[in-house]
Design goal:
The protein is α+β, with helices and mostly antiparallel strands and 351 residues long. It has six helices and 13 strands. The protein is 35% helix and 16% strand.
Amino acid sequence: MQKVLRRTILAKAQYVRKTERRSERLARESRRARLREEWGVDRLARKDIKQARLARREDWELGPLAPTRNVGDAKETYGAMEMERVRPVELSEEKRVKFWNIVENDRVVVLEGRDKGKIGVVKSLEKKSNMVVVAGLNMADVKVPGFLLHNEVDKRPVRSYELPLPLTSIRLVHALTDPETGVTRDVIVKKIVNSRIWFDKHTGVRRWSRIIPGLNVKVPWPKTEPREYKDYEVDTLRAGVEKRTWVPTLLTPPMPETVIDELRNKYSVFRHRHDEEYVARKIAEDEEKAKKKSMVEMMRTPLKEANRRERKERKKMGKGTLTREMLTRIGEVMAKRRALPPAASPQVVAT
């Protein structure tokens, strides 16, 4: 049985090591994929900037003789961005924001870019990249690949989309009432913090409140429409779900004892709970092995007999005694090894 337990422990340790190596490998692969994606987006951006600079220089140098670029294949897509630049690059888990104090339907103001100072409503959140999409702001023309236009009614090769904005480029806008004048106006919230976080046992999610530090004003969350649930014919009725069909007691277990065999193989290396018959059989095997081992140790061999005779002879001789000449010789050897003159060597007194 000890062999079975040792095998289970070794299998669990090996599984833990494999899991750690697999998680490290996946982390490396995801990091490489993020870097490749960042490099690809930067390469496209640098390419567009380079082409724009060359076009501007040609327009300045040639003047009226500058070529017309929105012709040919680029007649409908000239000046539009590639689809790859629209999608934000995902960040690692350590760099992502854990608690978002800006959510959908919040009113925010843009701090930089061509839409600087404009107020809009948050359309969606890109939590994997710490970015938000504001409805109607930061618009850009994007090229739509041809394979996406086959199954769509809209055949336009260029469409306008809202590009995501970094979370650091926006601020929350909230209506505050001046206590002196009583006038309510929109205020740009420079900093907002979260209150104590608690766990809602009804919804199973973490909740917190948004607070403006200094003023100690709680900012309410935007109102959201309740989710509509549609009933289907295959849905289970609430009465059937709440109906109690079986009541467990102390005399009957909540599930059959053989359910462990269905969840895990009966002889799996990861299993540490076995049937009584299996445990008894393994214990009997261990006892049989121990009995055989003791019989082998009790068996007398010619070598054991010779060693036994030598031990008896040494026992008859008794313990040896050191004479004065032997002690003097030992002292000389010790002094010689320590590189001391023989006269300075310490005397050894027999006890």
